[in-house]
Amino acid sequence: MPRSSSRKGTTNLKESGNSPVMDLFRGGSSKASSKDTGRHDQLFYTYANHSSDMIDPDGIVSLCSDLGVDHTDVRILMLAWTMQAEKQGYFTLHCCVNAFSWQDEWRRGLKELRADSLSKLQKAVLDLDNKVRKSSSFPDFYSFAFRYCLTEEKQKCIDTESICILLDLVLGCQFRAQVDALTQYLKQQTDYKVINMDQWNAFYRFCNEINFSTFENYDPDLAWPLILDNFVDWMRLKRDKA
Fold first, then answer.
1. CA distance 137 to 24
2. Within 84-175, where are the H helices?
3. Contact partners, residue 239, CB within 8 Å, separation at least 6
4. What average pLDDT does the segment 78-104 reach?
5. Taking the CB of residue 29, how many other CB atoms lie within 10 A of it?
6. Distance between CA atoms of 48 and 92, rounded to whole angstroms?
7. What is the rounded CA–CA span in Å between residue 144 and residue 214?
8. For labeling, which of 113, 197, 204, 222 is most exposed (least CB within 10 Å)?
9. What pLDDT band is residue 18 in, cutting at 50, 70 and 90?
10. 101-103 and 54-55 as β-strands: parallel, antiparallel, unpaired?
């Protein structure tokens, strides 16, 4: 029988003292020249809504069209991660982090990608999927993908339907069998309407660590969320009936 408690333990991905984005793209100049910054800004305002001083959803669709990438492509999510964008569907030159600090999103992202023109940005974006997935920074990108979908103030969870779409986008090409089974389970079960960050992070750890063919190394007494205990029970029962 499925256990109905929402969580059993906390699962955190390893955090580094350095910025994972900076680690991934380390090797370029540590400071962008004023000439580069001017080019970054010029490209930004090609797509920005001048009344809001942001690249809004319409601007992102236009940018994606020029880059030759669909706006739903995972590489656009990776681009947002590279910029450490704060608000889904928007890129800014300056983002207010708190009352005392501002963060450059667009300039930061283009600096990290070493792209000061549309053609250079296109080349960098087209290679993002391969580059991010092979790097040690991927767990940070995976966590960002969840946070980026928290669109409401004080929101901490995401509905299971959206989680299924996000899992397929972020992990589908690496863990096809696991993602297909997990999304099927999430759509069929009735105990969980939403997923929190601990559960989301545990999904990646599960895909990355557990022998999916036998589950022999899955120990329910370890700090796995109960939703994964229930998933493993569901999978074993399903296989026994096959």
1. 7
2. 106-113, 118-126, 128-133, 138-148, 160-171
3. none
4. 81
5. 9
6. 8
7. 30
8. 222
9. low
10. unpaired
C-alpha dihedral, 69 to 74 to 80 to 86, nearest 10°: 130
pLDDT tens readout for residues 109-121: 999 999 999 999 9
Q: What is the pTM of this model?
A: 0.84
As beta bridge partners, residue 26 has: 28
CA quadruple 96, 101, 107, 112: dihedral positive or negative?
A: negative
3 state DSSP class of 93: coil
Do 202 and 181 contact (CB within 8 A), yes or no? no
What does the chain come to in residues? 242
In three-state secondary structure terms, 12 is: coil
Token pair for 41: 């800004």
Buried-state track 59-71, b at ≥16 Cβ within 10 A, e below 16: bbeebbeebebee
Pairing outcome for strands 95-98 and 101-103:
antiparallel
